[in-house]
Protein backbone atom coordinates (compact mmCIF):
# COMPACT_ATOMS: atom_id res chain seq x y z
CA UNK A 1 0.00 0.00 0.00
CA UNK A 2 1.14 3.55 -0.75
CA UNK A 3 1.04 5.56 2.49
CA UNK A 4 -0.18 9.12 2.00
CA UNK A 5 -0.02 12.19 4.24
CA UNK A 6 -2.65 14.89 3.61
CA UNK A 7 -1.42 18.40 4.45
CA UNK A 8 -4.46 20.70 4.40
CA UNK A 9 -5.59 23.40 6.84
CA UNK A 10 -9.29 23.23 5.88
CA UNK A 11 -10.79 20.23 7.78
CA UNK A 12 -13.65 19.81 5.29
CA UNK A 13 -11.30 19.76 2.29
CA UNK A 14 -8.95 17.38 4.10
CA UNK A 15 -11.82 14.97 4.78
CA UNK A 16 -13.00 15.13 1.16
CA UNK A 17 -9.46 14.38 -0.05
CA UNK A 18 -9.26 11.46 2.37
CA UNK A 19 -12.54 10.03 1.03
CA UNK A 20 -11.24 10.37 -2.52
CA UNK A 21 -8.02 8.63 -1.49
CA UNK A 22 -9.80 5.79 0.32
CA UNK A 23 -11.87 5.05 -2.79
CA UNK A 24 -8.80 4.25 -4.91
CA UNK A 25 -7.21 0.80 -4.41
CA UNK A 26 -3.55 0.74 -3.43
CA UNK A 27 -3.56 3.84 -1.20
CA UNK A 28 -3.97 4.36 2.53
CA UNK A 29 -4.20 7.66 4.41
CA UNK A 30 -1.34 7.64 6.92
CA UNK A 31 -2.46 10.90 8.51
CA UNK A 32 -3.92 14.40 8.16
CA UNK A 33 -2.12 17.53 9.40
CA UNK A 34 -3.02 21.20 9.10
CA UNK A 35 0.32 23.02 8.82
CA UNK A 36 3.93 22.65 7.79
CA UNK A 37 5.29 22.14 11.32
CA UNK A 38 2.88 19.29 12.00
CA UNK A 39 3.67 17.81 8.59
CA UNK A 40 7.42 17.82 9.20
CA UNK A 41 7.02 16.28 12.64
CA UNK A 42 4.83 13.55 11.11
CA UNK A 43 7.32 12.81 8.31
CA UNK A 44 10.13 12.52 10.85
CA UNK A 45 8.32 9.74 12.73
CA UNK A 46 6.12 7.94 10.18
CA UNK A 47 6.88 6.18 6.87
CA UNK A 48 5.19 8.01 3.99
CA UNK A 49 5.57 7.58 0.21
CA UNK A 50 3.34 10.43 -0.99
CA UNK A 51 2.18 13.81 0.32
CA UNK A 52 -0.96 15.62 -0.90
CA UNK A 53 0.16 19.16 -0.21
CA UNK A 54 -1.71 22.44 0.05
CA UNK A 55 0.28 25.67 -0.43
CA UNK A 56 -1.73 28.36 1.38
CA UNK A 57 -1.62 27.55 5.11
CA UNK A 58 -1.01 29.45 8.35
CA UNK A 59 2.66 30.06 9.06
CA UNK A 60 4.97 28.48 6.49
CA UNK A 61 3.44 27.63 3.14
CA UNK A 62 3.49 24.24 1.47
CA UNK A 63 6.32 25.09 -0.89
CA UNK A 64 8.58 25.57 2.12
CA UNK A 65 7.78 22.04 3.23
CA UNK A 66 8.52 20.75 -0.27
CA UNK A 67 11.84 22.65 -0.22
CA UNK A 68 12.76 21.05 3.13
CA UNK A 69 11.85 17.56 1.89
CA UNK A 70 14.20 18.00 -1.07
CA UNK A 71 16.93 19.62 1.05
CA UNK A 72 16.92 16.65 3.44
CA UNK A 73 16.93 14.18 0.56
CA UNK A 74 13.81 12.35 1.70
CA UNK A 75 12.47 9.88 -0.85
CA UNK A 76 8.93 11.24 -0.61
CA UNK A 77 6.82 12.24 -3.59
CA UNK A 78 4.48 15.22 -3.56
CA UNK A 79 1.27 16.07 -5.41
CA UNK A 80 0.31 19.70 -4.87
CA UNK A 81 -3.42 20.40 -4.40
CA UNK A 82 -3.88 24.13 -4.03
CA UNK A 83 -5.85 27.22 -5.02
CA UNK A 84 -2.51 28.80 -5.93
CA UNK A 85 -2.69 29.15 -9.70
CA UNK A 86 0.01 31.79 -10.21
CA UNK A 87 2.88 30.86 -12.51
CA UNK A 88 5.69 31.40 -9.92
CA UNK A 89 4.08 28.94 -7.48
CA UNK A 90 3.46 26.35 -10.18
CA UNK A 91 7.00 26.68 -11.56
CA UNK A 92 8.57 26.44 -8.12
CA UNK A 93 6.56 23.34 -7.21
CA UNK A 94 7.53 21.61 -10.45
CA UNK A 95 11.19 22.61 -10.11
CA UNK A 96 11.20 21.13 -6.62
CA UNK A 97 9.99 17.84 -8.04
CA UNK A 98 6.23 17.82 -7.45
CA UNK A 99 4.93 14.89 -9.51
CA UNK A 100 1.63 16.65 -10.24
CA UNK A 101 -0.20 19.91 -9.54
CA UNK A 102 -3.98 20.19 -9.10
CA UNK A 103 -5.67 23.59 -8.89
CA UNK A 104 -8.67 23.89 -6.57
CA UNK A 105 -11.49 23.36 -7.17
CA UNK A 106 -10.91 20.16 -9.13
CA UNK A 107 -13.01 17.21 -10.25
CA UNK A 108 -12.57 13.84 -8.59
CA UNK A 109 -11.63 12.29 -11.93
CA UNK A 110 -8.60 14.58 -12.10
CA UNK A 111 -7.32 13.40 -8.71
CA UNK A 112 -8.28 9.84 -9.58
CA UNK A 113 -6.18 10.01 -12.76
CA UNK A 114 -3.24 11.62 -10.92
CA UNK A 115 -3.19 8.93 -8.24
CA UNK A 116 -3.56 6.05 -10.71
CA UNK A 117 -0.69 7.38 -12.82
CA UNK A 118 1.39 7.81 -9.68
CA UNK A 119 0.54 4.28 -8.53
CA UNK A 120 1.65 2.85 -11.87
CA UNK A 121 4.95 4.74 -11.80
CA UNK A 122 5.54 3.84 -8.13
CA UNK A 123 4.98 0.12 -8.71
CA UNK A 124 7.16 0.00 -11.82
CA UNK A 125 10.01 1.79 -10.05
CA UNK A 126 9.66 -0.55 -7.06
CA UNK A 127 9.46 -3.79 -9.02
CA UNK A 128 12.14 -3.18 -11.65
CA UNK A 129 15.85 -2.50 -11.12
CA UNK A 130 16.34 -1.20 -14.66
CA UNK A 131 14.19 0.39 -17.36
CA UNK A 132 14.53 0.40 -21.13
CA UNK A 133 14.28 3.71 -22.96
CA UNK A 134 10.80 2.77 -24.17
CA UNK A 135 9.63 1.99 -20.63
CA UNK A 136 11.14 5.21 -19.30
CA UNK A 137 9.48 7.20 -22.09
CA UNK A 138 6.12 5.70 -21.14
CA UNK A 139 6.62 7.04 -17.61
CA UNK A 140 7.97 10.45 -18.52
CA UNK A 141 6.23 11.39 -21.75
CA UNK A 142 2.55 10.68 -21.12
CA UNK A 143 0.72 13.49 -23.00
CA UNK A 144 -1.51 14.55 -20.11
CA UNK A 145 -2.70 13.63 -16.62
CA UNK A 146 -6.38 13.26 -17.38
CA UNK A 147 -6.37 9.51 -17.89
CA UNK A 148 -7.43 9.95 -21.52
CA UNK A 149 -3.92 9.57 -22.96
CA UNK A 150 -3.04 6.73 -25.31
CA UNK A 151 0.44 5.26 -24.99
CA UNK A 152 2.56 3.67 -27.67
CA UNK A 153 3.36 -0.02 -27.46
CA UNK A 154 6.97 -1.24 -27.53
CA UNK A 155 8.35 -2.12 -30.95
CA UNK A 156 7.16 -5.52 -32.17
CA UNK A 157 3.83 -5.50 -30.32
CA UNK A 158 0.51 -4.72 -31.97
CA UNK A 159 -2.67 -3.39 -30.40
CA UNK A 160 -4.81 -6.04 -32.06
CA UNK A 161 -2.77 -8.95 -30.69
CA UNK A 162 -2.43 -7.28 -27.29
CA UNK A 163 -6.22 -7.08 -27.05
CA UNK A 164 -6.51 -10.79 -27.87
CA UNK A 165 -3.91 -11.61 -25.22
CA UNK A 166 -5.60 -9.44 -22.58
CA UNK A 167 -9.05 -10.83 -23.39
CA UNK A 168 -7.73 -14.39 -23.06
CA UNK A 169 -6.11 -13.60 -19.71
CA UNK A 170 -9.30 -12.01 -18.36
CA UNK A 171 -11.33 -15.03 -19.51
CA UNK A 172 -9.29 -17.12 -17.04
CA UNK A 173 -10.98 -15.18 -14.20
CA UNK A 174 -7.90 -14.90 -11.97
CA UNK A 175 -6.56 -18.42 -12.50
CA UNK A 176 -2.80 -18.83 -12.91
CA UNK A 177 -1.45 -19.77 -16.30
CA UNK A 178 1.78 -20.54 -18.14
CA UNK A 179 3.13 -18.83 -21.23
CA UNK A 180 2.60 -22.03 -23.21
CA UNK A 181 -1.05 -22.36 -22.17
CA UNK A 182 -1.73 -18.72 -23.06
CA UNK A 183 0.03 -19.06 -26.42
CA UNK A 184 -2.19 -22.01 -27.29
CA UNK A 185 -5.33 -20.13 -26.26
CA UNK A 186 -4.44 -16.97 -28.20
CA UNK A 187 -3.07 -18.87 -31.19
CA UNK A 188 0.40 -17.32 -31.41
CA UNK A 189 3.90 -18.67 -30.84
CA UNK A 190 5.47 -19.03 -27.40
CA UNK A 191 8.21 -16.61 -28.45
CA UNK A 192 5.60 -13.97 -29.28
CA UNK A 193 3.51 -14.56 -26.17
CA UNK A 194 6.57 -14.09 -23.97
CA UNK A 195 7.09 -10.64 -25.48
CA UNK A 196 3.54 -9.67 -24.57
CA UNK A 197 3.86 -11.17 -21.10
CA UNK A 198 7.10 -9.28 -20.53
CA UNK A 199 5.29 -6.06 -21.42
CA UNK A 200 2.24 -6.85 -19.25
CA UNK A 201 4.49 -7.75 -16.33
CA UNK A 202 6.45 -4.53 -16.81
CA UNK A 203 3.36 -2.34 -16.46
CA UNK A 204 2.08 -4.39 -13.52
CA UNK A 205 -1.02 -5.79 -15.25
CA UNK A 206 0.14 -9.33 -14.51
CA UNK A 207 2.51 -10.74 -11.92
CA UNK A 208 4.74 -13.79 -12.10
CA UNK A 209 5.66 -16.59 -9.68
CA UNK A 210 8.00 -19.56 -9.93
CA UNK A 211 6.04 -22.76 -9.21
CA UNK A 212 7.88 -25.88 -8.04
CA UNK A 213 6.26 -29.20 -8.86
CA UNK A 214 7.10 -32.66 -7.54
CA UNK A 215 9.13 -33.53 -10.63
CA UNK A 216 10.83 -31.66 -13.44
CA UNK A 217 11.96 -28.07 -13.72
CA UNK A 218 10.11 -25.19 -12.00
CA UNK A 219 7.56 -23.37 -14.16
CA UNK A 220 6.80 -19.67 -14.39
CA UNK A 221 3.14 -19.00 -13.69
CA UNK A 222 1.40 -15.72 -14.41
CA UNK A 223 -1.68 -14.18 -12.82
CA UNK A 224 -3.64 -10.94 -13.10
CA UNK A 225 -2.87 -8.25 -10.52
CA UNK A 226 -6.45 -7.31 -9.63
CA UNK A 227 -5.50 -3.88 -8.29
CA UNK A 228 -3.82 -2.91 -11.58
CA UNK A 229 -6.41 -3.85 -14.20
CA UNK A 230 -6.68 -0.24 -15.38
CA UNK A 231 -3.00 -0.13 -16.32
CA UNK A 232 -3.74 -1.71 -19.68
CA UNK A 233 -6.36 0.89 -20.63
CA UNK A 234 -3.97 3.47 -22.21
CA UNK A 235 -2.62 0.82 -24.59
CA UNK A 236 -5.90 -0.54 -26.00
TrEMBL record:
<feature type="modified residue" description="4-aspartylphosphate">
    <location>
        <position position="54"/>
    </location>
</feature>
<dbReference type="Pfam" id="PF00072">
    <property type="entry name" value="Response_reg"/>
</dbReference>
<keyword id="KW-0010">Activator</keyword>
<dbReference type="GO" id="GO:0005737">
    <property type="term" value="C:cytoplasm"/>
</dbReference>
<dbReference type="InterPro" id="IPR051271">
    <property type="entry name" value="2C-system_Tx_regulators"/>
</dbReference>
<protein>
    <recommendedName>
        <fullName>Transcriptional regulatory protein</fullName>
    </recommendedName>
</protein>
<dbReference type="GO" id="GO:0003700">
    <property type="term" value="F:DNA-binding transcription factor activity"/>
</dbReference>
<keyword id="KW-0963">Cytoplasm</keyword>
<keyword id="KW-0804">Transcription</keyword>
<keyword id="KW-0902">Two-component regulatory system</keyword>
<dbReference type="InterPro" id="IPR036388">
    <property type="entry name" value="WH-like_DNA-bd_sf"/>
</dbReference>
<dbReference type="InterPro" id="IPR036390">
    <property type="entry name" value="WH_DNA-bd_sf"/>
</dbReference>
<keyword id="KW-0238">DNA-binding</keyword>
<keyword id="KW-0805">Transcription regulation</keyword>
<dbReference type="InterPro" id="IPR011006">
    <property type="entry name" value="CheY-like_superfamily"/>
</dbReference>
<dbReference type="InterPro" id="IPR001789">
    <property type="entry name" value="Sig_transdc_resp-reg_receiver"/>
</dbReference>
<keyword id="KW-0597">Phosphoprotein</keyword>
<dbReference type="InterPro" id="IPR024187">
    <property type="entry name" value="Sig_transdc_resp-reg_cit/mal"/>
</dbReference>
<dbReference type="GO" id="GO:0003677">
    <property type="term" value="F:DNA binding"/>
</dbReference>
<feature type="domain" description="Response regulatory">
    <location>
        <begin position="3"/>
        <end position="119"/>
    </location>
</feature>
<dbReference type="GO" id="GO:0000156">
    <property type="term" value="F:phosphorelay response regulator activity"/>
</dbReference>
Amino acid sequence: MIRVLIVEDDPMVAEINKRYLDSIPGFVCAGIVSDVSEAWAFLETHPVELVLLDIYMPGKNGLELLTEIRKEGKSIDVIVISAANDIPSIKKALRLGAVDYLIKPFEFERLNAALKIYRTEHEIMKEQEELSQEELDQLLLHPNKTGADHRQLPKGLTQETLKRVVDSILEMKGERFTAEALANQVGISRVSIRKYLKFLTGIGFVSIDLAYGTVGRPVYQYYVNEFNLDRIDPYL
